[in-house]
Amino acid sequence: MKIIILGAGQVGSTVAESMVSEANDITIVDTDGDRLRQLADHLDLRTVEGNAAHPSILRAAGAEDADLLVAVTQSDQANLVACKLASTVFNIPTRIARIRSADYLGHPEVFSPGNFSVDVTICPEQIMTDYITRLIEFPESLQVLDFANGRLQMVAVRAFTGGPLVGRPLSEIRDHIPDVDSRVAAIFRGEAPLIPTGDTVIQHGDEVFFLAAREHIRTVLRELRRADQPVRRVMIAGGGNIGSRLAASLESKYQVKLIEVHKRAAERLSQELDRTLVLCGDSTDEELLSDEHVGEMDVFCALTNDDENNIMSSLLAKRMGAHRVITLINRAAYVDLVHGGQIDIALSPATVTIGSLLTHVRRGDCVAVHSLRRGAAEALEIIAHGDPRSSKVVGRTVDSIGLPKGATIAAIVRRRDALPDDEIACAIGMDDEVIIAHHDTVIQRNDHVIVFAVSKDLVPKIEKLFAVGVGFF
């Protein structure tokens, strides 16, 4: 696939790194020549220096025969203009734009074919807000992912001594919770992945990925570790796009305090937010944190634009007694250094956002793609098309499909009533059947199949497996 990426910032470079490793033809455009040279030095891609909203620059990037345009510059306006040019001048089939302004997002007609011709909009700030909200909802978790319009959730959790299943084989999970069907999709012991069987024994410290219907998640969590106290108090450091969105999302359910260093921004936020206590100050100020009782916080979220400040304020908050700390870190190297130590969860915005983009790059009919373990693994929601003659999965049991080693079919969501193929992707509803996959589960046409891959290198093999033979058409 020939892909043009506009913007070589954190999101653009992460997208490029992920896609270039999968044999795509990548060209990245940015006004920062030094940044482009750094990318070209360690990635196999073309670079074009210039304004992404100029037709001549898009032409130089190869827009005349591109398959996909990903506009992720810092400017909403540049992204919109580039998508319009990509449609009207260059006829690029698929156009994705990063949009940060809530004003634009509140008027979806802006993106229609008659206006700016954007096929898919992504808002990294909103994706991050939703992601952190789920982590606060399930405070024991390391990662919470939605599939099938929220019918299913995959949760990563660190197993600790005291959980009923820790030290016992997975085959006993049915005895402990007989009324709940769930599936452990993978276990990571240190950095080594384990493909679980009934005889696999969960050990203290294992990172366990399990999948269950949304309403059963808390029940399964209790089997793997002692339940944390429900979250009541949240402190947020940073009132930028993510911090302010998160406060607005949480303030109706939790007691929220927000620290913003800039006085004007703090005054504006105090007027925009209804129930959040907005404080003007430095989140690395130990005296301020002490005065605001950070030690009584169930969750402390460091969400400023400064990685070092986020790390320092999180370490301070943890030392002063905050139960759980979530830290936003843009530099990927920092994430690996601090995640899972004194900082409970370190998040990279680019890594969290990448799944929304990969959904539109993956071959086959992918409804959702989630990047796991900071990009090392992936979970995919793929629609099974075809019939037993044209498909390698339809009409076959899970154990006869021939998945590559390291890949697991964890669950299926099946429509209770038949729908045409062109309507099935967005048709999953609350009345549809959630099936936790076992060895004898048979895949049917139009099933939404949840596949876990312990390494993203397995993804091309999975895509090929779900591809439909030309005879079907």
Characterization of the model:
The protein has 473 residues and is of the alpha/beta class. The protein contains 15 helices and 22 strands. The chain is 28% helix and 25% strand. The longest helix is centred in the N-terminal third of the chain and has 14 residues. The two termini are 22 Å apart.
Give a topology summary.
Elements lengths: L1 E5 L3 H11 L4 E6 L2 H10 L3 E4 L5 H6 L7 E4 L4 H13 L5 E5 L3 H4 L14 E3 L1 H14 L3 E7 L4 E7 L14 H4 L5 E8 L2 E3 L12 E7 L3 H8 L8 E5 L3 H10 L4 E6 L2 H10 L4 E4 L5 H6 L7 E4 L4 H13 L4 E5 L3 H7 L6 E3 L1 H10 L7 E7 L4 E7 L23 E8 L18 E4 L11 E6 L5 H8 L7
Parallel strand pairs: 1-2, 1-4, 2-3, 4-5, 5-6, 12-13, 12-15, 13-14, 15-16, 16-17
Antiparallel strand pairs: 7-8, 8-11, 9-10, 9-11, 18-19, 19-22, 20-21, 20-22
- What CATH calls the topology of the largest domain is Rossmann fold
- The CATH first-level class of the largest domain comes to Alpha Beta
What is the averaged pLDDT score?
A: 87
**Percent range of helical residues:** 25-40%
Largest sheet: 6 strands, parallel
Structural class: alpha/beta
Beta-strand residue fraction: 15-25%
**What is the C-alpha radius of gyration, as a whole number of Å?**
23 Å
Please tally the β strands and state the result. Answer: 22
Q: What best-fitting shape do the alpha-carbon axes yield?
A: globular
Span between N and C termini?
22 Å
Biggest sheet, spatial arrangement of strands: 3-2-1-4-5-6
- The total count of helices amounts to 15
CATH superfamily of the largest domain: NAD(P)-binding Rossmann-like Domain
- Work out the count of structural domains: 4
CATH architecture of the largest domain: 3-Layer(aba) Sandwich
Uncertain parts: 422-426
